[in-house]
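Key result, reporting period 2: structure in, sequence out.
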């Protein structure tokens, strides 16, 4: 049923989104993000290594016991690594866009960024988040120990060592982590929410992170058209008075908080 929903959601998005290369976006900052980051075709050398790692995961017939604390309600199952990689890893163009966004934020920040990922999986997207600037601190949370072990192995192979790992139920771990950031007066500069794909969990994560966002923070919500309830969460996030601008790329939604931006929601082909 969700597959049919996603198909019609994509058709609607394609027919109503626009692709102007940034034209029509009034904020110079956001115009730059669209024109120079979204539609940039240049690559970075580290991408090749990360994609080789992705290919290894897609080719691996090894099996692991995976604990699903999200929509699986704590069910444990034996799964092939290549099956996990084929269905659960963020696609390259989205991961590479986040790499560019983090690189851009890093270049315009006087301090290393504090980056959070909810849902490590095999760590491929995590590698993109961390490799953009190794001075940044990346924290990633995952409910399944076996997945996190594979992710750590991949990161060691890629020689990426600015990642902190937290294993356990994100519903329990996230409030503890945000409390520590509050005590340290640390904001969240960039967050990627890709964990429990339900309305309740997505809204809980969003509201938990809101007190920590700064003027230039960016939140990325994954799979906003995964199901009707994920779309419902996205629509509620868009209507929140504490945000100023969103960008709907179909696969993900970008959320911005700078009060200097014109309050507008963009639907873009990407």
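The corresponding designed sequence is given below.
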């Amino acid at each position: 049923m969700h597959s049919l929903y996603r198909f019609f959601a994509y058709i609607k998005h394609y027919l109503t989104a626009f692709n102007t290369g940034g034209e029509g976006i009034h904020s110079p900052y956001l115009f730059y993000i669209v024109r120079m980051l979204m539609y940039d075709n240049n690559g970075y050398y580290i991408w090749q290594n990360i994609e080789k790692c992705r290919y290894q995961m897609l080719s691996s017939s090894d099996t692991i016991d995976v604990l699903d604390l999200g929509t699986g309600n704590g069910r444990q199952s034996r799964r092939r690594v290549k099956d996990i990689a084929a269905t659960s890893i963020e696609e390259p163009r989205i991961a590479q866009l986040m790499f560019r966004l983090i690189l851009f934020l890093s270049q315009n920040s006087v301090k290393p960024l504090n980056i959070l990922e909810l849902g490590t999986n095999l760590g491929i997207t995590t590698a993109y988040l961390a490799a953009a600037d190794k001075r940044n601190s990346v924290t990633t949370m995952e409910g399944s120990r076996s997945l996190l072990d594979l992710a750590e192995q991949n990161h060691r192979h890629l020689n990426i060592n600015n990642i902190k790992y937290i294993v356990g139920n994100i519903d329990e771990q996230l409030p503890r982590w945000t409390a520590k950031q509050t005590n340290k007066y640390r904001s969240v500069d960039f967050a990627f929410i890709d964990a429990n794909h339900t309305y309740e969990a997505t809204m809980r994560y969003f509201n938990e992170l809101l007190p920590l966002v700064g003027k230039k923070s960016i939140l990325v919500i994954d799979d906003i058209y995964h199901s009707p309830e994920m779309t419902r969460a996205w629509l509620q996030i868009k209507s929140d008075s504490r945000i100023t601008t969103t960008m709907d790329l179909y696969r993900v939604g970008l959320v911005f908080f700078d009060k200097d931006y014109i309050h507008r929601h963009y639907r873009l082909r990407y």
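The first helix runs from residue 2 to 16. The radius of gyration is 18 Å. This case is discussed further under Risks and Mitigation.
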